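User: I'm putting together a teaching handout on how sequence relates to shape, and I'd like one worked example. Could you take Phospholipase/Carboxylesterase from Gimesia panareensis, show the sequence you're using, and then write out its predicted structure as tokens right after it?

Assistant: Happy to. First the sequence, then the structure tokens directly below it.
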Amino acid sequence: MTLTTRTFGSLSCQIYDQLPDQTKPKLIAVVSHGFGAPGDDLVPLGPEILRRNSDLASQVQFVFPAAPLSLLEMGIPGGRAWWMLDVAALNAAIASGTIRDQRNETPEGLVEAGQQFRDMLDALLQDAGLPLSRCVLAGFSQGSMVSTEVALQLPEPPAALTIWSGTLLCEQRWGSLAEQSPRFPIQQSHGKQDPILPFEGAIWLKEMLEQREFSVDFTEFMGPHTIPEPALEKFGSLLADLTSSL
């Protein structure tokens, strides 16, 4: 696996591709990790998707930004976060089986994380010489939330947004942004046995987006907080469909 590390904006990014020398990608997939994971947590998805879709190897570049906050002081060496969480409240909700309704919450640090992500994205695309329409935003858990936060505010539509195990935050604000946003295709997946971000939150997000006339390809599965095989297959197919039209 060939990896390079570069900084765009204030974020360190792992870059994976199999492009021939001096060849620019047709499409960039920015894949963002979840709370507590190291910045390279999802890097193995790059070679796995190219193994399944060999035609993408000469066309797609994968970029894996590391979230800005270190969790070393929380006892998670190498762990990163887009914004801090109340871990005690999360663990209590998991233990009691309580549904965490975050629709009226704008987590402290979400907006700032979104701005850092946007600065990274702008610098990345400027360096690559590509427009927003050649970029797919994808993320898992907290990474999917910051990706959603940014995607809904872009002045031009990205190629697509992929939400793995996300949830609906700040419903009124995201709803208003979605109404004003140019439309783009969305993939979403969520486990019906997810103890961390309950399935209901994913449905609320899906319904909010569909009410604003976004097309959402939703994959539900019997499983926990993870990226399932069908969602990974769909993501590879999405990249193949996008590149075939370029």
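A couple of points you could highlight for students: The chain has a mean pLDDT of 94. Strands lie at 3-8, 11-16, 27-32, 60-65, 69-70, 80-81, 135-140, 160-164, 186-191, 216-221.
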